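Exam revision sheet. Question 4 asks you to relate a sequence to its structure. Input first:
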Amino acid sequence: MTLQNSRWRWAILAVVAVAAIIASVIGSYKPDSNVTLTDLNGIEDLRARFNQDKGTPRLLLLLSPT
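Answer key, structure tokens:
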């Protein structure tokens, strides 16, 4: 084993360790208990709800059966 191979192995190990630490921090995040999902029945419901939450982060989840 050469010195260069050894450095690569340590670099890869360090990257994996940092990724594991970041994943554990992200995985321990829990949103507020007052967060709810909303079932929308049309584009007008979506528009009204979207405009109601102006100034806050929003996530739209679109599911398709195909």
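Marking note for examiners. The chain has a mean pLDDT of 83.
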